[in-house]
Amino acid sequence: MSVPKTAAAVFEDGWAPYLTERDRAVLAATSWAKQAPFGLGSRPLVVAVDLYYAALGLPRADIVESVADWPSSCGAQGWEVVDRTAPFLRAARDAGVRVAYFHATPPEYGRWNRKPAPALAPKPRAVDGNAIVAEVAPAEGDIVLRKIGPSCFFETPLDTILRAGGYDTLLVVGEATSGCVRSTVVDACSRGYSVGVVGDLCFDRFESSHWLSLFDLNQKYADVITADAATEYVQADTRRGAA
């Protein structure tokens, strides 16, 4: 399936402030600049990356306030994305498109983050930081796997699941855009899958990292699309009944 040519245009105002005049000149001058969408396939799987409490913080709060208690939190901006993600996941399931969740392992399973936050005194938590947030909790039939590296493909059965199920496309949502989302998208592209990054359903702690990652991914490895475009895509008749 082709991707609407205007799908990524809505994000240009987001990444444009981070491109220099030299960057714009290079884009205008080189044949390497992306001229058209790569396109999506006929059998997608939605991949929800790291939608867990430690990535968002609880209660909902501005990021600067939230990181005082939850060092890896993306704060209120992340929660806004979660609220937009919930209806998209419901639409995907209703259309017969499966959803796979990946979230971080507890620290005792091994720490892959090379720059962990300084150790803090234990604090009472109302929720398990490694638990997927209730607003987008997995439903019956969803796939839930532990992710032990930046990429959802690293030492997980994701590639086997995709090939066994005949999936040719990933729709990626979640966080961090510059980290685990980006790593997953690059690995998916490397394995020959078509990839749609749902840009308004991804988030990051740093605005510049978020926007420049969307720019890079859209140029090189994937199509950055809107939640509306992704919903239209999963609801296409050719995908009804996919399991």
Count of discrete alpha- or pi-helical segments spanning 4 or more residues:
8
> SS-based structural class?
alpha/beta
Low-pLDDT windows of residues? none
Which shape, going by the Cα principal axes? Answer: globular
Number of strands: 6
How much strand content do the residues show?
15-25%
Kindly report the oligomeric state of this protein.
single chain
Helix content: 25-40%
Please list the strands of the largest sheet in the order they lie side by side: 3-2-1-4-5-6
Computed over alpha carbons, the radius of gyration is 18 Å
| Terminal-residue CA separation | 18 Å
Instruction: List the helices and strands in order.
Output: HHEHHEEHEHEHEH
Largest sheet: 6 strands, parallel
Mean pLDDT: 89
Report on the architecture of this protein.
The structure is a single chain. The chain is of the alpha/beta class. The chain is built from eight helices and six strands, in the order H-H-E-H-H-E-E-H-E-H-E-H-E-H. A six-stranded parallel sheet has the order 3-2-1-4-5-6, sandwiched between helices. The model has no long low-confidence stretch (mean pLDDT 89).
